[in-house]
Automatic annotation (TrEMBL):
Protein name per UniProt: Hsp20/alpha crystallin family protein
SUPFAM superfamilies reported in the protein's UniProt record: HSP20-like chaperones (SSF49764)
PANTHER family, alphabetized: HEAT-SHOCK PROTEIN 20 FAMILY MEMBER
Gene3D superfamilies reported for this sequence: 2.60.40.790
PROSITE patterns for the chain: SHSP
Xref: Pfam families: HSP20
Native organism: Natrinema halophilum
Length: 154
């Protein structure tokens, strides 16, 4: 009876190999996220592309927002993170009389993107505009002074 096979002998080895593969994959994902951008804090995929440009005295964020009006968009600046989100409802009506429509379709679209700014910005001077489906946000950098100041001691 010593030659009898033991069906569970390979399970522990299989689980260890599976655990190593999961750890390797997780490290790979972390590396890909770090390499993609340490500035992008968005979760999940979004159809909205965002660019961040350093123009010396200000950062310029541009985002593709085709079909969104300025009322459909929301911008929030919290410490060093800019959040750009949009929410719209589009209704397509078919037929002459909207009250007795034969077909009426609605679609909701939304997005939310977060981007970390590399430096502090002057919150009071931030400007944003939408033109031809392109959102442009201008974020002037906070001016830091290299001048020394005398401090009185009480």
């Amino acid at each position: 009876m010593a030659d009898r096979s033991r069906p569970f002998d390979g399970i522990e080895e299989l689980l260890n190999r599976l655990n190593r593969q999961i750890e390797t994959t997780a490290r790979s994902w972390e590396t890909q996220v770090d390499n993609r951008s340490r500035l992008d804090l968005s979760i999940g995929d979004s159809a909205t592309s965002i660019d961040l440009k350093d123009e010396g005295d200000e950062f310029v964020v541009t985002a593709d927002v085709p079909g969104y009006e300025s009322d459909d968009l929301e911008l929030r600046l919290s410490s060093d993170t800019l959040t750009v989100s949009g929410n719209r409802e589009r209704t397509q009506e078919v037929g002459d009389d909207a009250a007795t429509y034969i077909r009426r379709e609605r679609t909701m679209q939304s997005f939310s993107r977060q981007i970390r700014l590399p430096e502090s910005v002057d919150v009071d001077s931030v400007r944003a505009s939408v033109n031809n489906g392109m959102l442009t946000v201008r974020l002037p950098k906070r001016v830091t002074s290299d001048e020394s100041h005398s401090i009185d001691i009480d």
